[in-house]
Design brief:
Helix content is 34%, strand content 18%. With 500 residues, it is of the alpha/beta class. It folds into 2 domains: 171 residues, no CATH class; 234 residues, no CATH class. Helix 13 packs across helix 14. The N and C termini lie far apart (57 Å). This is CHAT domain-containing protein. It comes from Planktothrix tepida PCC 9214.
Length: 500
Amino acid sequence: MKRIQRYRLLFLDILKHLGYLWTRNRVYKRMWRALPLVLLGLVVMELSTSGTGLAGLSVGRLSRAELAPTSGQLIASRVNWKTEVNQVEKEWESDYESYFSQNLTDSKLTAPDIAQILAQISQKTRTKPAVLWVVPEPEGLVLVLITPGKEPLGQIQSNIKPEQLRTGVINLYQELTNPRKLQSRSYLEPSQQLYNAIIKPIEAQLEAEKIDTLLFCLGAGLRTLPLGVLHDGERFLIEKYALTRIPAFNLMNLNYEPLKDALVLAMGASEFKNQNPLPAVPFELATIVNSDGMNGIIRLPIENPQNSGQWQGQSYLNQGFTVDHLKRLLSFSPYRIVHLATHAEFKPGKPGNSYIQFWDEQLKLDQMGQFNWKNPPIELLVLSACKTAVGDKDAELGFAGLAFQSGVKTALASLWYVSDTGTLALMSEFYQQLKTSSTKAKALQQTQIRMLKGDVRLQQGELFLSRGEISLPPEIVQPGIDNLSHPYYWAAFTLIGSPW
């Protein structure tokens, strides 16, 4: 009898979603007469499915919805989105804690807490931030949005499955990074498909609230998605929003501190025993830090001498770039930005498989906690030559968890290894934008926009930046690389953690 009652209620729900009214629809009355046959069919179906019942009609944790959509239609009513946010946060925190084998936070912020924090940050930074949870479920794609001071809004798209999303991300990677396609726009098809799945359903709400900064909390298969390259048919996502990716809101450092007078520690290597050389690294460090030619860093021939190093700090190259040296420097020096120009790779398997390459050894991802990143707190850790195993869950967790695992507030890293000169161009412009932007995400946004519009470019051995031109020595000028507007050169770089 309980089973019959359950199906009777389910039948009523189906009628309701189809638009049939209680008293004004003759079709409804005819369908009601068919209820006994429908119930009998449902019971027989359940008895023949090895006890699985109608579990497939619920959306994972979203059984509160009672009915999953049967097409691409978005159905969000009857879901308690506050509860959903809390549940997703809890589950994803557990995923990261299992991967890193440690307790990562005791924070238990709820959806109303998050909305209030966004409102406070909005006032401090003069931005309009929003958090978007993108949750691939077997029964469909779940989107939940929280904007400053507002209730969460959610949608379920039952026609978008996790396999489709993973395939879309891999296709996008292949089109973006294929050397033979750097003069084409073949990436647009997968880029637009992913935009339509993830952004288009909430686009009207973002525009109505004038959101300008998006924090993406991404589920499995999407954590290494190059967000900025998503395309609406006219513009890239980076042209509309400053972006960052977070593992979970409860795993973020929520404090806001301007970086205007921050000291920078810039370290790197141009030569390696078992890795490809990075000949542009000395020039990359010199464009960032004004260290008066200290520690063997080469000074660049720039039209305006004031353009050489943009930030106060120290630089160390090759033999000065060791794990022990970094530990000593962080133990007593008040650096707030650490820039590491070197190879880094996020690999499948345990955190110990992923590494940052130093001059004489590799620093494993699970060893990041050995450093004093928190006292004083490091606002920004930059890894300028990373690559990540696309589509692997563990590699995704390592990459997306880089900021909180190291203890820094925000990390800037690349999803794939970009050319030496392309990296030099982006980093040089980013640090210039960082001096005047209200947030790190805004600085990266402006940098990437300038690259895609051709304002940051290479031309006849010179690097054109917003602050002037840099003449590059012949040994780091790569033939055939002049136009840096293709997303291959800028879309790989992404913020992880706080956008502020």
